[in-house]
Structures are given as structure tokens and as C-alpha cells.
Amino acid sequence: MKILKFGGTSVANAINIKLVKNILQKNEGTKIGVVVSALGGITDLLLVTLELASKQNVNYRNSFNEIEERHLSTIKKLFSVTTQSSVLGKVKAELNDLETLLEGSYLIGEATPQLSDKIVSYGEILSSFIISEYLKVEGLDVSLKSGRELIITDEAFGKAAVDFERTNSICENYFNSTVHKITVVPGFVSSSHSGKATTLGRGGSDYSAAILTAAINAETLEIWTDVSGMYTANPKLVKQAKCVSYISYEEAMELSHFGAKVLYPPTIQPVLQKSIPIIIKNTFAPEDEGTKITKNNNDQGKTVRGISHVNNITLLSLEGPGMVGIPGISKRFFETMSLEGISIVMITQASSEHSICVGISDIDAEQAVAAVNKAFTYEITTNKIKKVIIESDLAIIALVGDNMKSHQGLSGKMFSTLGRNNVNIRAIAQGASERNISAVIRKEDVKKSLNTLHETFFEKNIKQLNLFVMGVGNVGAKFLNQIKKQRKYLQEELKLNVRVIGISNSRTMAFNENGISLDDWQNFLADGQKANPNKFIKIVKELNYRNSVFVDNTASDIIASSYSSYLNSSISVVTCNKIACSSEYSNYKELKRLAKQFNAPFLFETNVGAGLPIIDTLKHLIASGDKIKKIQAVLSGSLNFVFNNFDNNTSFHDVVKQAQEEGYTEPDPTIDLSGVDVMRKILILARESGYELEIDAIENDSFLPEESLKTSSNEQFFESLKKYENDFQKLYQNAVQKGSKLKYVAQFEDGKAKVGLQEIPENHDFYNLDGSDNIVLFYTERYANQPMIIKGAGAGADVTASGIFADVIRIGNF
Ligand code: ADP
Ligand code: ASP
Ligand code: MG
Q: Which pTM does this prediction carry?
């Protein structure tokens, strides 16, 4: 014999029930017991309806109508017109009884646990009836046997304890004597010795099935659900989770105890005693192999088998000097909890005996506090023990595996993984069996923690980076395109999975939690919500992804001022925007400090020389003990373009205009022409070299006339360039006469920086600098006479985008 259990989603509607029938038809040879849950969602709905009724809220009727409608429509879709009337009649009669009970609760404004069990049982009573009738109509040899007759319990309503002696003998007798091939049994429901309706706890249909399986010594228990087995983590929260083929009873028990809902925790016990295997199968993909739960997990190599979590946890701690060395305090504490019927999910006790700390469900917190404070009234009033302290809205996350005990360093790996992602750990416990390590964390951190731990323990070296990209103009668009092209290489060669989760321009912003398609991001963004940088930050933080990276491709000061809010949530920042790093030194320093404190890199390679590895090289020089003595550089791609194209055949105005149109200048060209942009760059290089410098301290010998510098719009600026054309021509002539070229040079020496236009003679390193190229000469202690030279394209969207890309990859390797 076999027992098959079908969960709520598997029987949620007519289409799914037909799938169940197909599975049962394949099993025709053997005698089987089929345990069914209520139609998916009905149990919750019944509880909500009762809650409304007992609060005398008339809306309970709408809720009841919904329950009625779900059942009647399922029947109508499942049965032909000729066969449905008797089923409808019976179900309507049951629903009438249910309505009467609800009305009673509404009238007296009360719901006892006993009434609640009676009402909530209707879900399974109705589903089992409908399904058994349908199977009969389909020609299967079926009988219906109520769980209330088969499973006998005490009267702990809501989660009754089974009387196994009675239950086993009733089940044995029934299944031995039944002549039908299939017996349909409603899960979850049971009755007390005196015949009152009881239930086995939420998710209890699994348990009903296990009880029957053990009682009749069936050969297997099949749990048919909506996933293809037990996964390394909840597949709804961790996309990369993998189905586990084999797992031991103990591992399955630990995982379900810590929240793997796919199996109700008490389910294992009855079958374990008889070593009957459990197989978890997917109703919607019956061909999938599923997970086999047996004595041994059949997989020696693996240490961690799964990661699970329980939400809505409260930490309750009792502490005080009066606890040290006094025997019996723990006993009294746990006795109190047990007498209140409060189950303890996790225990941690400090080795100093100074405190006891336990994790319980949020819903039990109030009751637990009152009970413990009462039990220790004497100690509290005499200051030996402090009043109970609680902290709610937490979650427990647990690593589980039989082989964990023989491996060192797992907890270190677990906690450093969480720490790196800014997950604050409130308490830790390791079961004596060393089959689990669990940690209490904030509820908001659950998804991030599951994913990051999964990455560490199951996804051999693949690291996921989650990008939030602000600014998708020229540079941003190129950047997204480069990611698209390189994605496969990054995955295969660098083991990096780069996903873009959010994008924004100045008009709209859009997010996709599973990653935005880079084939069609333009339309996706256009359909997004109104752009708002503060809301953008809020969403990034709420999503709370591991390895989050904020990428700023704008030139906006508002965006630059938001970096600290990202960094202090452990979100890395990559930017080509120079404003933050060239603002007050204190701000630059603070951003660097936050990056260190929160383990979130702050990278801005493209601030100087676009994609050229200038800052990175500088960092390596300094890290290896070198000292910067002098920097000489041509750092403005825009000014280089301008002076390389300007001669006596062109006008200065036209060349600047062309530079602007071709994207070589900032949108406001005065930022480049006045030298401010170069000042920012040399300032950043000086700071990165370890010098404390402010922008005001940089000498700027401007070649522009006062009037041009003071203009307040682009039109005015260009007008002024026309007016002073002669002056510009003079600058050019002077240089040419000496055989020199004009270059805008930045210099840093002895702690001082200056920028300005210079006439560069033919033998100088700067003389042959083409187009928009940049060049930097680093004179250091090691490179004292011959400088280290970095030269190449220093402006343009493509190279800037690739510099940003390189920073993102640096974070991936961090
Ligand atoms: P049923 O209604 O069939 O009893 P449940 O909703 O009770 O189904 O359990 C199945 C669900 O358990 C899955 O849809 C999944 O979201 C959740 N789950 C949590 N952890 C795990 C895990 N480690 N492996 C598989 N499923 C899990
Ligand atoms: N229907 C019950 C519940 O939702 C029992 C079950 O489905 O396992 O809790
Ligand atoms: Mg379930």
C-alpha cells in the first residue's frame, strides 16, 4: 500500500484536480490512500471569516460567499451537468451548516478554539468529498473515509496531540478491511475521544498522511505539492535553489523545523520510526524525480544540505546577576513556557549563565512576557533578575546538514558572509547534534541572507551583482550595452552574474526584481514610474539585495550627495560623476570611511581619464609603499580636442561648438573651458595620493577673458567667444612662433596644485597628444627620473562606460 498526499495548490481548482486524477490513474495497480488538503487558500479564508464574525463584523458574509463560490464553481467545472446536482446538493447542505456556525459566532461575538477547529475543518471535509465524487465519476474505485474517524486526538484544539494507539488500530482495521482500491481521506482533521472536531495544526495534512502511512505500514508516503521536491532553499525566494535528490529524515526535520514549509515538521516522526521513505513530488511536473527522504542522505560529500528560515520571531531574554550559579532557573523558565503551551523555536544561553535567551513566535510574545515575569516575581522585585526583555519582528535563518559536524569553519563562513552584506546577527545557536547552525536576524534581511548564503554554500564561486543605474544617457546606455555583450563571458570566465535591477533617467525610473532585460530597457524605462532620486534610494534599500551596486552616470550634484545613504546600507557606489570626490575634503574622506566601515567599495576610476587605469594604478603604487612626488598631466579630453583643432584656419568659437556637439565637453562647456573640470581631476589625484587639498587652494590661471567666465548661459558664453576671437588667435600665434603647441596642463608638486594653458615645446612628452587623449606622468620615489606614464583616450562615452564597467567588475572580485 501507498499513501499519497495532495496539498492545497494541487487541489486548488478543477484544472488541478484533473491533474491529480491523472496521477492516481497511473497508480491503479496498488491499493492507495489519498489524503487531500482544502482547496488552496480556503483554510486561511475560513479563519479570516471566523475572525470577522467573532468581531461582529458583517463583512464575514462576503468572505463566506467567497468560500461558497470557490467550491460551487469548482464543482461546476469538474462535473457534467448530469452528474453535478447531487454533489452540489450535498456541498450546499454542508455550507449551510457552516454558515449557521458562523452566524452563531457573529451573534455572540466570540470564537472559541473548539469552534475554530470545527469551522476550519470544513475546508478538508468539502474538498475530500468533491474529489472522491469526481474520481468515482471518472470510473475509479473510490471510497471516502473521514480523518475524524481515523485519527483520534486529545482536545488541544488548534494543534491536537494524536493518540497513536487508538489511531493505529482504527487505521489498520479500516485499510485491511476496505475493498476499494482508493480511499480518499481529508487531511488536517481529526476528532477527540469524545467525538469533538479537532485539527492537527496548520499544514497538518502532511502529518495526517504520515500517521496513516505508519499505522498501516505502507511502503511509501508520497507528498504531492507545487514544487519538485525539497530545495537547497525556498525556491520562491532563492531563484538559484536546486532540488535535492536525497535527504535524511533528520535533515528534512531540521529544515522543516526552521521553516521549509514544503513539509510540516511533525510529519517525519511517524514514518522515521518505521523507516518508510517519503517522496516529495510535483503535481504540476510529475515526471520530475522529486526528493527522497530516507535514513541516509546518500551524499557523503555535501556538508550544508539546505538553508531555511522562520519569520515572525521574537527574542525573549531573561537576565540578571541572580541567575549565576543558581540551579533550577532554566528549569523554571522552560517549565513556565511549557505550561503556557508556547513552543520555543531556538535556545541560546550565554556561557556566563548570566542570561537565557530564546526565540519564540511573535504571536506568543505577549503571553510569554506576562508568564515569565509572573513566575519570577520574587527575583524581579528583589533585583536579582531583570524584567523580561523582548525584541520582535526578527527571523531565524538556519544552515542544515548531517555532515556539518565533521567540518570546521562553517559557522565562520556563515557569519562572515552575513557580515559582509551588513546583516546584523542578534543571536546564534548551534544544535547539540551540530546538524544546524542558526542565527537570528532582522526580518527585512531574510531574502538577502538566504541568497547570499546560498551563493556561498551552493553556487560554487558564482557571485551575483545587482546593479542600480542612475543616468542612462550617452554613457549609461553604452554601459548597459557593454554588460549585455559581456554577460556570458562574465558568467563563464569570471563567475560573475551581473543583473540590472533598477534604472532611472531624469524623467522615469523602473525596477525589475528579477533583472531588467537589456534588449529592451528603453521601453521598460519609458513605462516606469516618475523619477525621484529619494524614492530610488528607498526602493534600492527595501529590495535589500546582496552585492548591490549603485552606478551614477550623471553629472548631478543631487545624486552625488546621495552616495553616503547608499554606502551606509552596504551598497557599493561606482561613479563617473566627479562632484563628490572634488567636494570638501571632509566629505570625500567621510565617503571613503563609510565604504570601509560598511564593506561597500566606493569606486570612481572614470573621474580622471575616463577608462584609463589612472586611479587604480595610483592605488597600487601607494599600496606597495611608493610615494607620489609630482604629477604632471593633460587631463581634459575636451580642451585637448579644442586646442588640437584650433588654428588660424578655424575660429575658437566653432571648435568649442563642435566639441560640445560631439559630446567632448560637459553639457555646460564653461566647466571645461574655465579649467574647473581639470581642477577637479588634479584635486582627486592629489587626494588619492594621500594629500589633504581643497579645490580653492588650486591655482587656476585662466586663458578665458573675465567676461566669458561670468556668462550665465551657453548662448552668452558662445557670443563672448566670438567677441574675443582675436585674443584666442594671439595665443595660438605665440605658441606657433616658438614651435610649440598649446596644451592645458595640470600639475601637482610639494602639496600644491595648479592648472593652466601652457606652450609645450616639441621634445616634451605632451607635444604629440592627439585628439582627446589624456596623459599622466607620475614622478614617485621609485619612478624618480623617468616618470610612469599613462596615456590614451581620456574622453568619450565608450571609454567612460568601459571604465565604469571595470569598476563594477572590481566590486565583483572584492
Ligand atoms: P502544499 O499546499 O502542497 O502543502 P505548501 O505551500 O505547504 O504546499 O509547501 C510548498 C511550498 O513550500 C513551496 O511552494 C515553497 O514555497 C515552500 N518551501 C519553503 N522552503 C522550501 C524548500 N526548502 N524546498 C521546497 N519548497 C520550500
Ligand atoms: N489546509 C490546512 C492548512 O492550510 C492543512 C494543510 O493544507 O496541510 O493549514
Ligand atoms: Mg503544506
A: 0.74
